[in-house]
TrEMBL record:
Organism: Pseudoduganella aquatica
Keyword Endoplasmic reticulum: no
Protein's gene: cmk
Any one GO BP annotation for this protein: pyrimidine nucleotide metabolic process
Enzyme Commission numbers on file: 2.7.4.25
GO cellular component, one term: cytosol
Superkingdom of the source species: Bacteria
Reaction it catalyzes: dCMP + ATP = dCDP + ADP; CMP + ATP = CDP + ADP
Subcellular localization(s) per the UniProt record: Cytoplasm
Binding site for ATP: G10, P11, T12, A13, S14, G15, K16, G17, T18
Protein name according to UniProt: Cytidylate kinase
Pfam family, one: Cytidylate_kin
MF GO annotations: ATP binding; dCMP kinase activity
Length: 218
């Protein structure tokens, strides 16, 4: 397709969500937060008490998600679940069900549909490797696990959730491990991806770097 796509992949709490958002705003592009789709599926599974080993049932949930996005808000069957899907339990469940090929397959077409004019910024784990391999610009954002745990801690506290640094570090490592070592769509930099380590970088510096790469690629 001729509609430009910028993919931003990376581990949990690497800052890719914030960076993707700002880059999309700056360019007037659409935004795909692909992690939200896995989180929505996870939330639905938790609520319906679906077994987290029942791949078929989980794929059905993913396939029939009734979701909509309005600005920064996410709706599941018309309920605003923007905050609910950010909980650690939902993120952890998302990373478990994301290992199932049929769950990923069920969300594939939905993700392609986000590519609309004038362009798309897509963030996740496999945006550049699997979903949009022909993207104009591919970025892989990383940061040390400590820097990421600290950011996640601040985010959770700011949202009024309780958080514990040691638990967060453990959860992040477990999730990194699952996302990196799974057989399907593992978290790896796409071929040709620009790697950006944001451990000691302000958000706006990262945004400026991505925009500069995009200007050079376009
Ligand atoms: O990015 P976020 O933390 O919201 O994603 C939640 C989980 O969903 C990740 O830990 C990962 O396992 C899964 N995910 C994925 N592929 C994507 C986006 C997210 O497997 N493109």
């Amino acid at each position: 397709s001729h509609i430009p796509v910028i993919t931003i992949d990376g581990p949990t709490a690497s800052g890719k969500g914030t960076v993707a958002h700002k880059v999309a705003d700056h360019l007037g592009f659409h935004l795909l937060d692909s992690g939200a789709l896995y989180r929505l599926t996870a939330l639905q599974a938790i609520r319906r008490d679906t077994s987290l080993t029942d791949e078929h049932a989980l794929a059905k949930l993913a396939e029939h998600l009734n979701i909509s996005f309005t600005g920064e808000a996410v709706f599941l069957s018309h309920e605003n679940v923007t905050d609910a899907i950010r909980q650690e339990e939902v993120g952890n469940t998302a990373s478990k069900i994301a290992a199932f090929p049929s769950v990923r397959q069920a969300l594939y077409g939905l993700q392609l549909g986000f590519r609309k004019t004038p362009g798309l910024v897509a963030d996740g784990r496999d945006m550049g490797t699997v979903i949009f391999p022909g993207a104009q610009l591919k970025v892989f954002l990383t940061a040390s696990v400590e820097a990421r745990a600290e950011r996640r801690y601040k985010q959770l506290i700011a949202k009024g959730f309780s958080a514990n640094m040691e638990d967060l570090l453990m959860d992040l490592k477990a999730r990194d491990d699952r996302d990196t070592n799974r057989a399907i769509a593992p978290l790896v930099p796409a071929e040709g991806a620009h790697v950006l380590d944001t451990s000691r970088m302000a958000v706006d510096e990262a945004v400026a770097q991505v925009l500069q790469w995009y200007a050079a690629a376009a």
